[in-house]
């Protein structure tokens, strides 16, 4: 039996008083890559926000990397986040320091203190994303694709079992998107990380087919259990 990293059962997802998604049910196993697609405003971000504790789960049950979402105390949310990697399209690096120092800043903010361990970890994640020799570069000295790689490196810092990626190829040209997709699929294969990636990029889905969750008319359809067109 493979390890379950996300289990959502009979969940209703709200934005304030508004019900956005109803009766959501899905599980994701270790090492699965799952797309999250759907029209603008159909609830993708709301679902991702629920998974990383930004929106409370009011109805139904949810477990993400061992954390119970239902009734989660806000004090626990940082611990959940430390066990997740989050990648956004509009991620901004701190412009006053190089890439290495940007990553060190994140480690320190999540409780790391040992200098040698931090150095090892930063070199490790930069190596994983193919930027080992670029740690000394300032943010303005690297390309959009490299910035996205740094964001993925940042997401890997705390060795998460699950990465949530919201449109990670949204601002990239097709060739650079392709490189980012290869990197994400390699992370899944090599480290058994699970990834949920929200996207509008159908070229990417065509070139890298995988299980797909679709938000549509207040429901989440799952290609693993429903016959839907991706
Ligand atoms: N902070 C908020 N407060 C109130 N309503 C919100 C908020 N954010 C989103 N909504 C509403 O919730 C619904 C779902 O929005 P959501 O952002 O989850 O959609 P989405 O599928 O991620 O869209 P996009 O593809 O544009 O990112 C929409 O009706 C939206 O207007």
Automatic annotation (TrEMBL):
**Top-level division of the source organism's lineage:** Bacteria
Among Gene3D superfamilies, the record links this protein to: P-loop containing nucleotide triphosphate hydrolases (3.40.50.300)
Q: Name one GO molecular function term.
A: ATP binding
Query: What is an example of a Pfam family matching this protein?
Result: ABC_tran
Q: Where is the ABC transporter domain?
A: 6-230
Entry annotated with the keyword Protein biosynthesis: no
GO CC annotation, single: plasma membrane
Annotated keywords:
ATP-binding, Nucleotide-binding
Identify the PANTHER family for this entry: CELL DIVISION ATP-BINDING PROTEIN FTSE, IMPORT ATP-BINDING PROTEIN
What is the protein's known function? Part of the ABC transporter FtsEX involved in cellular division. Important for assembly or stability of the septal ring.
**Would you identify the family this protein belongs to, as annotated?**
Belongs to the ABC transporter superfamily.
Q: What is this protein called?
A: Cell division ATP-binding protein FtsE
């Amino acid at each position: 039996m493979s390890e379950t990293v996300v289990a959502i059962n009979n969940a209703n997802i709200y934005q304030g008083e508004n019900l956005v998604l109803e009766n959501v049910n899905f599980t994701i196993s270790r090492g699965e890559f799952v797309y999250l697609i759907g029209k603008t405003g159909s609830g993708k971000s709301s679902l991702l926000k629920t998974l990383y504790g930004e929106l409370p789960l009011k109805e139904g049950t949810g477990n993400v990397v061992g954390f119970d979402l239902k009734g989660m105390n806000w004090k626990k949310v940082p611990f959940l986040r430390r066990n997740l990697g989050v990648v956004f399209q509009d991620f901004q690096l701190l412009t006053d320091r190089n890439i290495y120092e940007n990553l060190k800043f994140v480690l320190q903010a999540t409780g790391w203190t040992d200098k040698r361990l931090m150095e090892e970890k930063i070199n490790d994640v930069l190596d994983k994303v193919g930027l080992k020799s670029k740690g000394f570069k300032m943010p303005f000295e690297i390309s959009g694709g490299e910035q996205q790689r740094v964001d993925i490196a940042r997401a890997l810092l705390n060795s998460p079992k699950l990465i949530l990626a919201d449109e990670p190829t949204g601002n990239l040209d097709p060739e650079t998107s392709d490189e980012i997709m290869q990197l994400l699929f390699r992370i899944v294969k090599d480290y058994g990380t699970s990834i949920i990636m929200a996207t509008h990029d159908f070229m990417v889905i065509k070139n890298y087919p995988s299980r797909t969750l679709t938000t549509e008319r207040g429901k989440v359809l799952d290609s693993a259990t429903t016959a839907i067109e991706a």
